[in-house]
Specification:
A: mainly alpha, two-stranded antiparallel ribbon, B: two-stranded antiparallel sheet, 10 helices, globular
Chain lengths: 295, 287
């Protein structure tokens, strides 16, 4: 009797945990269904070619609304690439420091710093873009306003540094010590060992770090909303104010009436963004797995 | 190799090491600068009144009490909604899942959920909670949206905490005749608790700091009332900062209040992160 009850509890527990695990699959399905549904509703009245490749984003157009999202996509691409250009080399150097150069003590000092940097809310980074880096960028480039793609890139770079650092650090640490010893025994300096042997062996992990940093940057909303200058026109240089996809949804969805064309189009942008980040994550996945398994 | 070549190699090695140390120091300086800048600018506004009074005079005076309360509620609601599911899924993945397509599917979707931008969670929250579930723009809709956003994080941290528990714990318990459930509940979970709690505290910190998921699901500019029920609209610290920094009619005039709000938000997230840090350090199975 008691034994039967114990067995029953055991079975129930298993089912409950299984159900909890299935929820994440259901959430992804839910996102695809609901965002997909609204995207289809948007495409009923807005031609896909205009939405994807149109160069004029003007939902409040006087004669007719125009929903060309290309300027927004290019804005997203610019701030993301700009951020990567700063954060990848910087982050890799810090990861090398943490994994190859720092003593246990120095590591214990720097690791929490990187974690705290990741913990700062994105709205704070946006605010700092407004009050610190914005004016600085304006002064250095001689523009009247420093709120532009360059400014957003700098802020985004600081935001994705922790991602790049911690995953690269894991990847470097996972390289067996024998690799280093062999290289040093052959007469290589520490510097040569790091870049010629350890970094090469850690390459999949470094790729994973870069991809995940990229995914974070392209999906970041508040920081770019506040720091990028917020102009939905086709950007021509990094000194132009820009408005990425994320910022466009954030600024416009609050003001449109529900279930209108504009509302559906903003959902379509969200779905677009979802597909982009999904693609980035799927490409990164085999690399991330390899880091996890070797770590 | 010639002598000068060797010297050059040594020099490059030194210079390289210097660059690496410099880049790490720079990160520490960036964090130090951010923290001291906000502290210096915000400390002047910080007072008992600022923390306990509502905004007054079109938000040009007064405090941020309703925003603190709203942010606190968001952290609690999102945690209540997502922590049990995240832990349950973590238990399944660490203790039950065998290596098959189904487990791989769950792992893969969890990883991908973690990479979805917060603004996408925001619009999904509008469609699912605000509209489809008829919750309206409310504390509940926002809290649940944040809960969804934190789910992949909670699953991953719970699973990792459970995996760090040595196998001997499970074997010992099973050998004594305990069922699998009893083993998990009595032997594995208590040992993994510090790691699980760390993940939970950090997820609260994320819920408190996020803006994009609550933008359209219930947060408002200003409300004279504190939220009285899960269906109330509410104020929240990150949104309050966003409004003061970019949307107020008198942006320069309210800048000090914006710095004060930023300081409170940073202090709250740092406290939670330090708490998580010490729990992990104190109870780390390795130590």
């Amino acid at each position: 009797m008691i034994f039967g009850l114990k067995k029953l509890t055991d079975r129930i527990a298993r089912v409950v945990f299984l159900f909890a695990a299935v929820i994440s699959v259901m959430v992804v399905l839910g996102i695809v269904l609901l965002l997909g549904k609204n995207t289809i509703l948007a495409l009923k009245t807005v031609p896909p070619a205009q939405l994807l490749f149109g160069t004029n984003w003007n939902p409040a157009g006087y004669t007719a609304a125009s929903y060309g999202s290309l300027p927004l996509l290019i804005s997203s691409a610019m701030v993301t690439v700009g951020a990567m250009a700063i954060a990848v080399p910087w982050g890799l150097l810090v990861a090398v420091y943490l994994s190859e150069v720092a003593t246990e003590r120095q590591r214990a000092f720097f690791k929490p710093i990187v974690e705290l940097l990741a913990a700062v809310p994105s709205v704070i980074y946006g605010f700092l873009g407004l009050v610190i880096t914005g004016p600085l960028v304006a002064r250095l480039t001689g523009q009247s306003s420093g709120l532009n793609a360059l400014n957003a890139s700098v802020i985004l770079a600081i935001m994705i540094l922790p991602t790049i650092i911690s995953i690269s650090d894991d990847a470097l640490k996972a390289v067996p010590r024998t690799y280093r010893e062999a290289a040093r025994a052959l007469g290589a300096t520490r510097w040569q060992t790091i870049w010629g042997v350890v970094a090469i062996a850690a390459r999949p992990g470094i790729v994973a770090a870069i991809m995940l940093g990229f995914g974070r940057a392209i999906g970041e909303t508040m920081a770019v909303l506040m720091a990028a200058g917020n102009a939905p026109a086709m950007p021509h240089s990094f000194l132009d104010p820009v408005r990425p996809l994320t910022a466009t949804i954030a600024i416009e969805l609050g003001e449109v009436p529900w279930n209108t064309e504009h509302y559906y189009v903003l959902f379509a942008l969200g779905f677009y963004l979802f597909l982009i980040t999904l693609l980035v994550n799927l490409i990164a996945e085999p690399f991330v797995k390899r880091v996890k398994e070797s770590a | 190799m010639t002598k000068s070549g060797l010297l050059l190699k040594k020099l490059a090695d030194r210079a390289g090491t210097g660059v690496v140390i410099l880049s790490a120091t720079l990160i520490a300086l960036v964090l130090g600068y951010i923290f001291s800048f906000i502290t210096l600018k915000g400390a002047g506004v910080l007072s008992w009144d600022f923390l306990t009074k509502p905004p007054m005079n079109n938000m040009t005076e007064g405090g941020i009490f309703p925003a603190i309360v709203g942010t606190f509620y968001l952290a609690v609601i999102s945690t209540i909604a997502s922590f049990p599911i995240g832990l349950g899924a973590g238990i399944y993945l660490a203790e039950y899942a065998s290596d098959n397509w189904f487990t791989r599917l769950i792992r893969s979707t969890t990883r991908n959920l973690g990479g979805i931008p917060s603004i996408v969670y925001g619009i999904f929250g509008v469609a699912l909670f605000v509209q489809l579930s008829r919750m309206g723009t409310s504390l509940l809709a926002s809290g649940l949206t944040l809960g969804l956003m934190n789910l992949p994080w909670l699953i991953t941290t719970s699973e990792e905490a459970l995996r760090q528990v040595p196998h001997s714990y499970r074997e010992g318990s099973l050998a004594l005749g305990a069922t699998k459930w009893q083993t998990i509940w009595k032997a594995v979970l208590p040992a993994a608790l510090p790691g699980i709690l760390t993940g939970m505290i950090l997820s609260m910190s994320r819920a408190m700091g996020e803006t994009a998921p609550i933008l359209f699901t219930g947060v408002v500019f200003y409300t004279p009332h504190l939220p009285t029920s899960p269906t109330s609209q509410f104020m929240a610290l990150p949104y309050h900062l966003y409004i003061l920094a970019t949307q107020h009619q008198n942006i320069e005039g309210v800048r000090p209040l914006a710095y004060g709000t930023a300081l409170v938000l940073v202090i709250l997230t740092f406290i939670l992160n330090l708490a998580a840090f010490f729990i992990r350090k104190r109870f780390s199975p390795k130590a």
